[in-house]
């Protein structure tokens, strides 16, 4: 496979990974909220937990994705296998 195909496959897999991490984070945080925090709160304020859990899951998945991407770029030579997503508009320097 060439660099462009590698980049497209990587973007698809990374997007799928991010979605899976978000869903798993949401389910785990929702279960933790339901078991630990919801019984302690009054009935009127317990409904606010769902949006807070959703936002927390998005933030947690962002942090996990960022660390996973850093580990991936340390392990593999990104320039060797992938095409840049955004190319420079400047023309190359001539000697």
Nutshell version of this structure?
This protein has one domain (3-78).
Structural class category: mainly alpha
In N-to-C order, the SSE pattern is: HHHH
Radius of gyration: 20 Å
Shape type: elongated
- Fraction of residues in helices? over 70%
Number of helices: 4
Mean pLDDT: 84
Give the tally of β-strands.
0
End-to-end distance, in Å? Answer: 33 Å
Q: What number of domains?
A: 1
Biggest sheet details = none
Low-confidence stretches: none
The fraction of residues in strands falls at under 5%
Transmembrane segments: 7-33, 45-65
Keywords: Membrane, Transmembrane, Transmembrane helix
Protein name: Leader peptide processing enzyme
What is the strand and helix layout of this fold?
Blueprint: H1 3-37, H2 43-46, H3 49-75, H4 78-81
How does this model look, in words?
The structure is a single chain. It contains 4 helices and no strands. The protein has one domain. It is elongated, with a radius of gyration of 20 Å. The chain has 95 residues and is mainly α. 74% of the residues lie in helices and 0% in strands.
Defining traits:
mainly alpha, 95 residues, elongated, 4 helices
């Amino acid at each position: 496979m060439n660099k462009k195909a590698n980049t497209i496959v990587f973007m698809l897999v990374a997007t799928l990974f991010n979605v899976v991490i978000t869903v798993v984070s949401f389910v785990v945080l929702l279960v933790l909220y339901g078991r630990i925090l919801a019984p302690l709160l009054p009935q009127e304020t317990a409904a606010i937990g769902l949006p807070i859990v959703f936002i927390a899951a998005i933030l947690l998945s962002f942090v996990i994705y960022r660390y996973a991407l850093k580990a991936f770029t340390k392990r593999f030579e990104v320039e060797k296998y992938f095409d840049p997503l955004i190319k420079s508009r400047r023309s190359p320097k001539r000697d």
